[in-house]
């Protein structure tokens, strides 16, 4: 009799807890995991995330007590607009553009045109289009392109 009551109370508590907190039972979590073809821990993790409370990114700061929870805006650093990083990125980009320009100037006109139209143009040319224009085979355009790329790579490597 006592065990029967415990089982009834346990299931009643589970139902009340489930209705008030939206917690999944182990069986429900396993069924969902099976249906979604994921692990049970993933289902439980997602349930935890869905039932937790949201917090503002820049919630107002309470007092100066160490026990207060800091908002993420107080401890996450945004480095995307750091002046040092922006200047460095621009200098690297300018340096690379200058080195590429110098390397391209070492190529013959045909190779330079093929590289420019195959890689640097907004609308890329096909090997066949260039082959028709130069009255050679697409394979010959590919060979010229590969030779030019090797020269560019060597020139850029020497410059670095």
Determine the oligomeric state from the structure.
single chain
Poorly predicted ranges = none
Beta-strand proportion: under 5%
Order of helices and strands: HHHHHHHH
- The CATH H-level superfamily of the largest domain is Winged helix-like DNA-binding domain superfamily/Winged helix DNA-binding domain
Strand count? 0
The helix count comes to 8
Largest sheet: none
Structural class comes to mainly alpha
Task: Give me the CATH fold name of the largest domain.
Answer: Arc Repressor Mutant, subunit A
Taking all Cα atoms into account, the compactness measure Rg is 32 Å
Helicity level: over 70%
Concise description?
The protein is mainly α.
How would you explain this protein's 3D organization?
The chain is mainly alpha-helical. It has two domains: 1-51, no CATH class; 83-159, Winged helix-like DNA-binding domain superfamily/Winged helix DNA-binding domain (Arc Repressor Mutant, subunit A). It has eight helices and no strands. The protein has helices spanning 2-21, 26-36, 40-51, 72-75, 83-105, 109-120, 127-134, 138-159. Helix 6 (109-120) crosses helix 8 (138-159) and helix 7 packs across helix 8 (138-159). It is elongated. The mean pLDDT is 80.
